[in-house]
Structure formats: structure tokens, C-alpha cells
Amino acid sequence: MPPLPNRGRYYDLDMILANLRARYFPDCAAVTIRWGRWSGRTRTRSIRFGAYLPTEKLIRIHPALDQAFVPRSFVEFIVYHELLHHVIPPVRVKGRYQIHSAAFRQREREFPTYAEAIAWRQQSLRRLLRSNKERRA
Fold this sequence. Notes:
Layout: H1 13-24, E1 32-35, E2 50-53, E3 58-61, H2 72-87, E4 91-93, E5 96-98, H3 102-109, H4 114-136
Parallel strand pairs: 1-3
Antiparallel strand pairs: 2-3, 4-5
Helix pairs in contact: 1-2
């Protein structure tokens, strides 16, 4: 099953990416974005909202975020987080790579609705997991 087009039912990922790049990453090299696919796996405790694939310079966003109850600001935060992976590479510390380094976390906290996004994620995780499970049922 191919990925959804970038214009979902509620959110247009290309528009969100363009707005974030213009505001926060004006010198950011080319990166593309896509909706991911509904997987056959059911996670009961977590959901991977986004992923950055560095070899493809591609951001994938979980399709569970393309729902009416998901605030646009949360989708923007997830795209922002994945863009940070594009502009702040992992650092090697004591022989291991830190994907979310101190510099990464600091820049992540600079997102204007960071606190609200984290709070919404904690409050809404169960609902998102249910919608993910119902979608595949």
C-alpha cells in the first residue's frame, strides 16, 4: 500500500514543512516529507509520531496524526522535531551516538508551543493508540 499523498484529510504536510522551514530553518538543505502507512503492528503503549531517514532526507509522519482531534500545533511540533534531526546530526559521546543531544533538546524546547505539545501528547496518547488500533480493525 503506497503512502498517503502529502495532503491528508486534515493536514497538508508540504505546507506545514514549508512554513516551518521559512520560520525556523531558512538555510535548511532540501528535505522531503510524506505521510507514513498504517502498519500491521499494534503498539499498546507508544506510537512513533515521526521519523527522519537521513539517507533519503525524508521525514515520515504517522497517519494517526491526520485526524480532526489532533491540533495543528502538535503536527507542526512533530515535523519541527524531525527537521531538527535533519539539521542537528547525532553526536558521538563515549563511543555511542546521541540522537537527542543537549543541543538538540535545547533547540526542541525553543519551539513556541513546546510545553503545550508535550502536555497534549501525554493527555492524548491513549486516544491516538485507540484510533491506531481501530483503524486497523
